[in-house]
Amino acid sequence: MLIYLTEYLSQYISGFAVFEYITMRTIMSVLTALGISFYIGPKVIRWLIRLKVGQAVRLDGPQTHLVKTGTPTMGGVMILFSVSIAVLLWGDLTNHYLLIALLTMLGFGVIGFIDDYKKVVYKDPNGMRSRTKYLWQSIIGLISAYALFALANVPAESQLLIPYMKDTFIHLGAWTIVLSYFVIVGTSNAVNLTDGLDGLAIMPTVMIAVALGIFAYVTGHVYFSAYLDIPYIPGVGELAIFCAALAGAGLGFLWFNAHPAQVFMGDVGSLAIGAALGVVAIGVKQELILFIMGGIFVAETVSVILQVGSFRLRNGKRIFLMAPLHHHFEQKGWHESQVIVRFWIITILLVVIGLASLKIR
């Protein structure tokens, strides 16, 4: 929104022209989202406390979690609000990549909000029925996937880039829609499963968002993309604004979500930011790199699948002491903070490995 104002003012004051550059608007986006999060955080927490939307804790889980009972949840609304305002202020609202990412995030946020609302207000431990939730995730995921495919500018957008290999692509054509659907819905649910400890899901999200922002900038830059020998996709650089807002809002949320957490993000946050990461990865054609950088999310999801499969197929036998994976390590005696920080360290390493694909090919 402000880009149009600065373009007008630059006719009279040349200094405003600096805001036409993606780099400057990216910096302003992260600072805006961070500032909004810091400002509204205490207000949102007080509002949630008044609504008595406290988190219910599993009685069969780690006993150390019982003290978390009643901690306000649905704090993800501050992330969505901060990201939305930052993007609306500093993004080019004619850019379809930006709009699809923002609308997809908000769409999944609505699903998560309804699910949380049923759990904490109507005291329904199951929240939204799994089939209903998955149906709406699928509808929004398919719409987003189709929109990205239908509005594609270059042939590379219907290809699957194989990282670490030069000029290696798999031509998918319309099958890109199917891949994109699974990336969006899968990442959304993976982040949701990971969100079980204070700060465990949000910090990896911030790290991955920063990395994807770098991919967005170089992929949308004709010279950098040529130098790095990656596909040039016109306009996709604007996603750097979105990634910066997500990183800034995530850091702001972490201020209140750090152990011991004052607020939890709830499904309204985890489902939304997971879908957002998926859309950005699709836009910059780094779906497989997202799989690598989000290794913690992948491991958490696989642990649940294996646990459920083992329980059903092996007459109640379990592979892990408890799923998702972070609870398994807690049951083995790791302190919550140890699990969180160690998972963060692993994510840092995986993100570096992912970024290395820009040069290793």
Task: Characterize the structure shown.
This protein has a two-stranded antiparallel sheet. A hairpin with a 7-residue loop joins strand 1 and strand 2 (about 170). The protein has about 350 residues and is mainly α. The protein has helices at about 1-10, 20-50, 75-90, 95-120, 130-150, 175-195, 200-220, 220-230, 240-255, 265-285, 285-295, 295-315, 325-330, 335-355, and strands spanning about 160, 170. It has one domain. It is globular, with a radius of gyration of 20 Å.
For this entry, give a set of tags.
2 strands, 361 residues, globular, 14 helices, two-stranded antiparallel sheet, mainly alpha, single chain
Write the layout of secondary structure elements.
Blueprint: H1 2-9, H2 22-51, H3 76-90, H4 96-120, H5 130-150, E1 159-161, E2 169-171, H6 175-194, H7 202-219, H8 222-228, H9 239-257, H10 266-283, H11 287-293, H12 295-313, H13 325-331, H14 336-355
Antiparallel strand pairs: 1-2
Helix pairs in contact: 2-3, 2-9, 3-4, 3-9, 3-10, 4-5, 4-10, 5-6, 5-10, 6-10, 6-12, 7-9, 7-10, 7-14, 10-11, 11-14
Could you provide a short overview of the structure?
By secondary structure, the protein is mostly helical. The chain has helices at 2-9, 22-51, 76-90, 96-120, 130-150, 175-194, 202-219, 222-228, 239-257, 266-283, 287-293, 295-313, 325-331, 336-355, and strands at residues 159-161, 169-171.
